[in-house]
């Protein structure tokens, strides 16, 4: 019985090693972000926030971003349309307009590409405070 259990464990470890090696040598583009969330803190209603998410193609083939999707019209993306070569970095600029928004915000941006990790997500988070009236001074 011990030999059977030992044989099964050895077989399991062999499969795990092969799977890990395959993942490590998988060819193709790979998108890796420096950060996946930006907290803009407290802002006043109507303020605009811009943030740049920097990413690197850590894969072995050119990376092509086909789309950058936002959760609402208050968030606008700008992304590179040209392929990003292996080892190179690029940026996605996100602009958030807080007009008409209040309270805690979590704006998720989905990046669609030809990478082995075809969909990645980044987020803008923060808090919208009521607009202060300058006439009350």
What does this structure look like?
This protein is of the alpha+beta class and 137 residues long. The chain has a single domain (31-131), classed as Sandwich (Immunoglobulin-like). Helices cover 17% and strands 45% of the residues. The protein is built from one helix and eight strands. The protein has one helix spanning 2-24, and strands at 31-33, 37-44, 48-57, 65-70, 75-78, 89-97, 103-113, 119-129. The strands form two sheets. Strands 1-3-6-5 form a four-stranded antiparallel beta sheet, with no helix packed on it. A hairpin with a 5-residue loop joins strand 7 and strand 8. The longest helix is centred in the first third of the chain and has 23 residues, at 2-24. It is elongated and about 80 Å long. The relative contact order is 0.24. The model has no long low-confidence stretch (mean pLDDT 88). It comes from Cesiribacter andamanensis AMV16. Keywords: Signal.
Q: Averaging pLDDT over every residue, what do you get?
A: 88
CATH architecture: Sandwich
Helical content (DSSP H or I, runs of 4+): 10-25%
CATH topology: Immunoglobulin-like
Shape: elongated
In the CATH hierarchy, what is the superfamily?
Answer: Immunoglobulins
What is the chain-wise order of helices and strands?
HEEEEEEEE
Protein name: DUF1573 domain-containing protein
Signal peptide: 1-19
InterPro entries: DUF1573, Ig-like_fold
Pfam family, one: DUF1573
